[in-house]
Amino acid sequence: MDGFSDNDISHVVDADKAHVWHHLIQHKPFETVDPRVIVEGKGMRVWDAKGREYLDAVSGGVWTVNVGYGRTQIADAVRDQLVKLNYFAGSAGSIPGALYAEKLIGKMPGMSRVYYCNSGSEANEKAFKMIRQIAHKRYGGKKTKILYRERDYHGGTIGTMSAGGQDERNMQYGPFVPDFVRVPHCMEYRAQWDLSGEAYAERAVQAIEEVILAEGPDTVGGLCLEPITAGGGVITPPEGYWPRVQALCDKYDILLHIDEVVCGIGRTGTWFGYQHYGIRPDFVTMAKGVASGYAAIGVCVTTEAVFEMFKDDAADPLNHFRDISTFGGCTAGPAAALENMRIIEDEGLLENTTKMGERMMGNLQALMEKHRVVGDVRGKGLFQGIELVTDRATKEPVAEKDVGAVVAECSNLGVIIGASNRSVPGLNNVLCFSPALIATPDDIDQITGAVDKALGKVFG
Ligand code: PLP
C-alpha cells in the first residue's frame, strides 16, 4: 500500500482490534486471530492489511459495490461536487439531486418522485411513514397495518425490524412496533404446501389474502416485499407469483412497497428486480448499489399519485410529509449515483450482468451435478445462491459450521463469498454470490472454481 510501512499497517490492525466494533460478527475469535482489515480495491479485487489479494464475489460483502472498486470517475465527481457545494438541507434542491432524480425516474416508468436519505433502512422507514400518514389522511386512522413476509429483511432499525422476517436477527431486540403483520414466505424449494410452479404461487398469494382477511382489509395499508429475497436465502419467486400479488393489492386497496435495496441498480440484469415481473409498485426503496458504496445514499421513490396525497390540502398544517433526513441533503450521494448510473449505461453492464449471470448459473448447476450437498441453485443476473443440504430427499440443511467452513476455504483460495443471514434458525445454509456487474467470464469461473474445491474439501 502506497505510503504505508509494515509498522503503520500493524498499528492499524491493532487500533482496529482495540477499538472498532465490527458489524454483524462475533469478536471472541479476535483474541487469537486478527480481524480482516481491507485496505485497497481495484475492479473486482480487494487487498487486506497483510497484502493478500481476494476476488470479491459479494460486491463489498453485502451486494453493494455494483460498478467495482477504484472508480476515479465517481471519486472525481464527488470531490468536485463537495468543493462546489457539499451540503444544504433537503428542504431545498441541489444540482446532483435534481439531475439524479430525473435520470432515475427515466429508468422507472410509472414512478415519479425521489426522496433522499442515507441508507436502505432509512429509505424503508420513509415508505412506512408515508403509508402510515396516508392511513391517517385518507382512511381516518385505519389502514395503518403493513404486511411483510417471512424471510425478507428490510433493515436494522427498530421500525424496519418490526417488518423483519428473519427471526434470528430479531431475537433479543423486541418489543417491536405494532401493526406490522407477517405473511408466509414464498419459497418453492421449501414449500409449505404440496404444490409446485403456478399452483404453489397461487397458494402462497392466497396465504397473504388469508392474513388480509383475518386482519380486516380496511386495516391493511401496505405490503412490503423484496422482489427476490436476498439475505433470507436468495429466494426467487415462482412463475405467476408477482401478478397475483399485484392483483391482491389492487383488490384490497393496499400500497405495494418493493424493497430494491439489494436487487436495484442492475443487480439482476434489469435496472430493478421488480421490472422482471411486470408489477406497478407504489413505493420503491433502494440504497447499496445506488452509489456502489462511493457515498452513503438511500432513496425512496413513489408514484405521482402517492406524492399528490401529500399536497392535496394546503390549508391543513399536517398535510405534507413532515420528515427530514439531515444527510439526505448531502450532495455526495446523488453526485456519486449519477456517475454510477452513467458507468452502468456506458459500459453496458446490464447486458453483462445477464450474460455473466447465465454463465454463473450454468457453472453452479454443474456443481449441483457434482456435489450431492448442493440441494438447490437459485437467483437472477449476478445475484445467485446455492442451498446446501445433507440429503436431497429430506432437504435437511447442513450444519452452519460447515457453511462457515466453505466460506473460509474459499477465502483461503482467494475468493470472498457470502452466506445467508441469520434468518430462520437452522436454515442459514445458503451460499451467496453477487460479484460486481463488471465480472468477466474468468472471474465467474474463478469464483465457481473455488466453490467447487471448497465443497470438495469440506464435504468430500
Ligand atoms: N433491505 C434489504 C433487502 C437489505 O438487504 C438491507 C441490508 O442488507 C436493507 C434493506 C438495509 O439497508 P441498510 O443496511 O443500508 O440500512
UniProtKB/TrEMBL annotation:
Q: Family assignment? A: Belongs to the class-III pyridoxal-phosphate-dependent aminotransferase family.
Cofactor dependence is on: pyridoxal 5'-phosphate
Gene3D superfamilies reported for this sequence? Aspartate Aminotransferase, domain 1 (3.90.1150.10), Type I PLP-dependent aspartate aminotransferase-like (Major domain) (3.40.640.10)
Q: Which domain of life is it from?
A: Bacteria
Q: Name one Pfam family in it.
A: Aminotran_3
Keywords, comma-separated and alphabetical: Aminotransferase, Pyridoxal phosphate, Transferase
The name this protein goes by in its record:
Aminotransferase class III-fold pyridoxal phosphate-dependent enzyme
